[in-house]
Amino acid sequence: MHIPDGFIPYWQCAIYYVILIIALYFASRWARNNLDEKRIPLMAVLAAGIFAIMSMNLPIPFGTSGHMVGGTLVAIVFLAPEAAILVFTVVLLIQALLFGDGGITALGANVLNMAIIGGGVGLLTFKGLKNFIGKYPAIGIGAWLATFISAEFCAIEMIIAGKFPLIIGLTSMGILHAFIGIIEAVLTVIVIYVLEKYRPDLLAWNRKRKSNELVI
Predict the structure, then answer these.
(1) Which domains can be identified in the chain, with CATH numbers?
(2) Band of pLDDT at residue 212, cut at 50, 70 and 90
């Protein structure tokens, strides 16, 4: 799902960078109001885990790759897609600079796909379904759907850039990430279950209400 440098034109990169800058503005405001001495280490641990799972890439024709994401995990743990934006901006920047995985010019697009879309879709799905099917089934569905939709958005961006044929691009990304999404759903449920069992104080929905924070 990482888009490398040179795969999308600069005008398209500029649009995604504008989206990234706006997203980081709101994410930084969220961080000032919500991160504390417990949540900052948790975010760092999640970032390290996401770095690891995203390093396990499967090649996809025409130049991109398939892998697990983790946007839903971060967004649900903190009940905020802003957390995913911060984590993925740092992780993707390090991967691009040090390991050549993804690209600097494509950073905005990659954060859009994995954090803004991935985290947002996963969190909204979780919130929309948890009262009907239960918390953990909603987490699993949210993680799967976020992985699949993020991959399809990546394919659409590559199609607009002229790098993917329409049908092959959507099909290749969709089928592979539909299977990857199953693994991601299971891992997301396991991680959140373990956190709730052993460190429930780290989950946003178990924290006491603050004046600027919603608790579900």
Answers:
(1) 10-206 (1.10.1760.20)
(2) very low
From the centroid of its chain, how far is CA 186? 16
Neighbours of 56 (CB within 10 A): 11
The per-residue pLDDT for range 71-111, each reduced to its tens digit, is 999 999 999 999 999 999 999 999 999 888 889 999 999 99
User: Could you tell me the two tokens for 86?
Assistant: 């911060």
Longest CA–CA separation in the chain, Å: 50
CA 37 to chain centre: 23
Rounded Cα gap, residues 106 and 130, in angstroms: 34
SS3 of residue 103 by DSSP: coil
In the structure encoding, which two tokens stand for residue 143, read together? 């993680």
pLDDT tops 50 at residue 54: yes
